[in-house]
Design a protein that fits this description.
single chain; about 280 residues; alpha/beta; Rossmann fold; 7-stranded mixed β-sheet; 10 helices; 7 strands; globular
Length: about 280
């Protein structure tokens, strides 16, 4: 078994560059999930917001729109390529949005002042090395009464947008190494109540967890949806190091397994977890 690279190395390498390059497609597919997160955050004009694992800035810029020019938003991520894309997008943002600061840092260890009214994260908290320490640090960044809203994936069986292409690809490509239990990854908090329990251990109160079930549009047709599935997300790791012939076989297998609809739509399932810093 090969030694895993750190999350900082991973998101500053080819993966971060690929996600930055394909930001438009990713944000379009995740739009129904993003909408649920922003609604749960219940941001108000004038608030100060911290966006953890902000990536290419979609949730950060939406938060800036919600809190307006009297508020402020900080987008924090370890990935230089994705932050570069976020800064580029911010240049075209509405001047009526809140000012945004982009910070390249690890939310597990970055000193955070207790000034934020809200912390949010779209699929960022599953990649912490030390979840308890990281969540405690996020609580330190909230003022008393401040809120947190986090979105993470449910298990693979509930996420057809990953499961269907993954099972198809595995018919023609070698299986991956089994994941290390509890290691950073997309399904780190798939178990119901796991993330909620960690928030309670970190000192949060009024913890609530709800299921978010949405249909995702992966592409206008099977070819575009297959390209999306094999370029972004968990299925992409199956073909990343394959030769041209093996990649072509995987592409054909996935395309054949997808729904014959236009656009191609598959279901996604997340946990939306909210809590309050009691002070």
């Amino acid at each position: 078994m090969t030694d895993p690279i750190s999350q900082t190395e991973y998101w500053n390498g080819e993966a971060g560059e690929r996600w930055a390059r394909l930001q438009d497609a990713l944000d379009a597919a995740f739009a129904p999930l993003t909408e649920a997160l922003i609604a749960a955050a219940a941001l108000r004009p004038g608030e100060r917001v911290l966006d953890i694992g902000c990536g290419c800035g979609e949730t950060t810029l939406l938060a800036a729109r919600a809190v307006g020019p009297r508020g402020s938003v900080t987008g924090l991520d370890v990935s230089r390529p994705m932050l570069a894309r976020a800064r580029q997008r911010a240049l075209a943002a509405d001047p009526e949005n809140a000012p945004v600061a982009w910070v390249e840092a690890d939310a597990q260890t970055q000193p955070l002042e207790p000034v934020h009214d809200a912390v949010l994260s779209r699929f960022g908290v599953m990649f912490f090395d030390e979840s308890r320490a990281a969540l405690a640090n996020l609580r330190r960044g909230l003022r008393p009464g401040g809120r947190i809203a986090l979105l993470c994936w449910q298990g693979l069986p509930a996420n057809d947008w990953i499961r269907v292409p993954r099972e198809a690809a595995l018919r023609v490509v070698p299986p991956p190494e089994p994941p290390v239990p509890g290691a950073p990854g997309p399904f780190r908090f798939a178990e119901p109540g796991l993330l909620a329990g960690l928030l309670r251990q970190a000192g949060f109160a009024a913890v609530a967890e709800s299921a978010v079930l949405r249909d995702l549009v992966l592409g206008r047709d099977a070819e575009e949806a297959t390209r999306f599935a094999l370029t972004l997300g968990p299925t992409s790791v199956l073909v990343r190091d394959l030769g041209e012939a093996e990649r072509a076989a995987a592409f054909a297998a996935v395309a054949a397994a997808l729904p014959r609809t236009e656009p191609v739509v598959l279901g996604a399932a997340c946990w939306l977890v909210t809590a309050v810093n009691p002070g």
